Amino acid sequence: MTTIKLKKSLIFLFFVMHFGCVKQETPETVNPTPDIPIVEAPAPTEPEPGQEELNPGTPIVSDEPAPDSGSGSGSGSGSGSEPTPGPIPDPVPEPTPVPTPDPIPDPTPEPTPEPTPEPTPEPTPEPTPIPQTFSDLYWESIEYQEPYIKAVYGNQGQAALPRSFNLKVTKDGVEMFTKTIEVDVAPSVGEKREIKIHIDELGRPTGRTIRLGLTLDMSNLIEEENEDNNISSTALTIPNLTLPEFRALSLRYEGDNVTFSYQFTRLPSAYFNGKTFSIGLWAGEKLRYEISNRSADLYDVAHVIAGIPIPNHTEVISQTMPIPRDFDNYRGREARFAILLDHSYEIFESYRQDNWIEAPYFLNPLPGQSTEGMPDLEMESAYLMTTYPYLSISVRNNGADVSAGSGTRFKIKIERCGGSYTLDAGQIPLNQVGSFAHPISQMPGLGQNCNTRFIIDPENMLSEPNEVNNVFEFGPLFLPHPDGVVYPDLQLHTLWIQQTPSYISLTVNYLTPHVQTSVPVRFRMDRCGYTVFSRYINLLPGMNTFGLGLYEDELPARRQSCVTTITLDPDNNMRERDETNNVTTGNFYFY
Question: Is the per-residue pLDDT at 1 higher than 60?
Fold first, then answer.
């Protein structure tokens, strides 16, 4: 019994210590916790007489003092039987704590100061986007101005060119070259620039029409507004060039100087502006000028005068200079000397035969050298041959035998009736007389009786100790009129037309009797509205046939078939017994 009571007391004490004094609440006062069931305490029942029931939810109150039966336990009065313990109630859930109400505010709170508003920052405007600009290259114009093709291009875009670029040049679809145009010389916005292309850079396509292609920025390195206007394809006609015509006129060694003269008989076109040419003075025991193969030229010494500008006139140009020191080994003796125009082939021309003069000279000795052996020519006599219309002239050589070695030659000039005539005389041995017969047909004053003067070696081709005895005053001399005289005849033989290289060649028969002197002859060509002349050739005795020609750019109306008339000796420099056989006409095609 005591044990049972003790157990009950311990159970009661556990509940008291764990839950404290439990106040009986009605279901309305309990705030149920979700999901936790509310358990109501059973109604109190009256204990049976003599029994005490432990109510774990209600504390035991007694007016009697507790017996001193031990700590933490109590005993009830009653019978000695032990009461039956009732069921142990389920533990009452912990009550939900009541929230503490908010404190009641002061009915008169102090005014709270208004907060100072933060200043509203001004919105930063968005930057306005800058529109992107580009350059734009284009071609303005393309034209031919000899000797250049001038092409104008510009920049019509809104921006300058950012870098250098390349230019490509094509001819008939074939690339000729490219060149870089630096950015510092390229056009700015709205500007134009000129490009000059020399026709030599295109292979000198004269006398035909070409298709010229020009491409700016060929590699597309520059971004442009319009990429379609960088290419130009233009048909250009390049006319034939006007080639120069020049000829050597004289070469004379006299004393310590040499004098020569030459003449441009036709001035070249603008292609030759700024170009220069050279003159070569040759000396040697034997000279040879090979027009078609200059590597075969033969001379001992050549003194070259370079950088001579092309003149702008057709007057005779004469130049005197000291005998070159290169020729010192030929002083005091006989040798052959020559002059060659355009010695270094700086000016191309199709006819070069008259660029050359060769003559023998006996140069004056240097100071201290002996004068022995120098020739001395003297006019001896002149008379008209009665059996044939020829004039016979006799000249004596009082000095050295100049026929040895190369054989020095000289000329004779005849002046009469206001005119003059110069003829080649030849050479005369030492202390001998040379006689020369010449037809009178080319001499002035035919049919007249005029004072006649003979000048031996008028160009002083020979240096002589005595130059005074070279002039001979003959007095009145009658030369009959040439009526009834038999003259030579020029006769057209063959016209040869060649394709590569393009040229025509006219072969002419020189029928006897020959004129005993040099006569310049050329031909004229009339074709397709053009008139051109060939170069002169000097006819000499013994030339049974000779040729004249036109070459490359000298040919008129190339690649066309036209009626062509060729007239031989249009200047009538040679009097002939038949002038009707000097003209030929036909329809010819020139390549």
Answer: no
How far is CA 257 from each of CA 194, 254, 303, 327, rounded to the nearest angstrom?
50, 6, 14, 12
Contacts of 504 by beta carbon, 8 Å cutoff, 6+ apart: 495, 496, 497, 498, 549, 550, 555, 590
For residues 43 and 41, give the distance between their C-alpha atoms in angstroms, rounded to a whole number: 7
Residues 38 and 32: beta-carbon distance below 8 Å: yes
In this structure, what token pair is assigned to residue 257? 């100087």
Rg of the Cα trace of the chain? 67
Give dist(CA 374, CA 382) in Å, integer. Answer: 25
Could you identify the residue written with the tokens 């000695």? 80
Helix (H), strand (E) at residue 522: none
Q: What is the DSSP string of 276-345?
A: EEEEEEEEESS-B--SS-GGG-B-SEEEEEEEEEPPSS-SEEEEEEEPPGGGGGGTTSEEEEEEEETTT-
Quick one: average pLDDT of 118-125?
Answer: 78
Integer Cα distance of 534 and 148 in angstroms: 28
From the list 25, 81, 19, 20, the residue with the least C-alpha distance to 48 is 81
Which tens digit of pLDDT belongs to each residue from 207-220? Answer: 899 999 999 999 88
List, for residues 374-414, the tens digit of each pLDDT value.
Answer: 677 888 888 776 555 778 888 888 775 544 433 456 788 99
- Contact (CB, 8 A) for 440 and 446: yes
Distances (CA, A) of 232 to 151, 167, 171, 229, 530: 10, 11, 12, 8, 34
d(CA 297, CA 290) in angstroms, rounded, equals 5
